[in-house]
Amino acid sequence: MAVVVITGGGVVGLSTAMLLARDGHEVTVLERDPNPPPPPLDAWDDWSRRGVTQFRLPHFLLARFHAEMARELPEVVEGLLAAGAFRLNPIEVMPTSASGGWRPGDERFTAVTGRRPLVESVVAGVAEAHPGVTVRRDVAVTGLLTAAPAAPGAPHVVGVTTSGGDRIPADLVVDAMGRRSPSPSLLAPAGGPAPGEEVEEIGFVYYGRHFAGPDGAPPPMIGPPVQECGSVTVLTLPADNGTWSVTVVTSARDPALRTLSDPQRWAAVVGLMPLAAHWLDGTPLDDRVAIMAKLEDRRRRFAPGGVPVVTGLVPVGDAWACTNPSLGRGASIGLVHAVALRDHLRTGDLDDPAGFAARWSALTDEAVGPWYEVSLHIDRHRLAEIHAEIDGAPRPAVDARYEARKQLELAGSQDPDLLRANFDSGLVLRTADDVMAEAGVAARAAELGADWRDQPRLGPTRSELLAAAHG
Fold first, then answer.
1. CA-to-CA distance for 410 and 420, rounded, in angstroms?
2. Which of these, 34, 250, 354, 462, could form a disulfide with 138 (CB 3.0-4.6 Å)?
């Protein structure tokens, strides 16, 4: 069994630690934020995580996250439910006329979700009690310990150095430090090249607020959780213990909507959304609008072309690739990636560091690469639509893949089989390519969803939106 150091104590890092410890590995998690997690119900008010930009922004765990956790770490799901997490299966809340009624297999759409502080508190509590896992907080990784190279031109990592001056040896270092991981800057002093990077500015700005209601339940979901309306997208997401969030997503190229940082202007815009306005009927949990911007779609390749730039260190989750948070896929993709790493350690040979690193890169592309690529594809097309609306230009042309996605979304509202196909894709259960390759799906979706461009707008016109944003 291996000695493993995981850098980063978020949900993916801690989940990776528990998965590896269950196989008998000795795992130490190093988290730079100093504050230990308070009890879950106190986490919103009492916990600060300066290393997590979106800690108090809207958060949602998709069905794939629940499926992986229920199979691999069921005590986490039990802890979330005990802490008041929200359980949701969209089939259960839809009219039978739309869903066709409950079917065997529909349980796969179940999600258990909550505000990020509560979720992280629960995961941290389970991890810190887990045999074989040691969590050290207020420990920043400042450098890499190296030994003789195992691959030409690539440093071989055998541990880390910390801000406290510790030298912590390891058979494997796992980078779980998220979208702003400093691992590339740590490789240069170790004598190695930086990993290959594909970077594209996401171009979205997020304006979000959380609310609580008096009856312990979120507002009724009379519309989809993601509502695209011209130059804005509105997210309405249930959370835990009778709380929920509402987010308005705009383009960074839309300075006219920067007034959404003002709670009154933000509420005026949301109030124009007929399927979302009632989500304002609660008590705000914060006085301000939470804002997130300047994010990137980014993928790092630690073994481009099968040639490792480093051995003894592997990335997992957002440290490998990060995408648009409004798609809600990060935790699910990260957990799938963590399970793949656990499986790789069962068969991969750490005594062959170069082979282990190259194979991990290939396995990453197989297990989670398609999810990154489709997320990037969606971002590009959605931004093009937003910018056309801002400029008063015609709707932009789309490629065949995006056309099929939009057709399936509309067709799902008319055909229960296609509804489930759309859920499979959107909830990260099956890739869109796999869904569309199923017999009859693409043809039926094209038939029922052909007029997706002509559907009525879900909210205000651009001029009405600007009027509300500026009072």
1. 12
2. 34
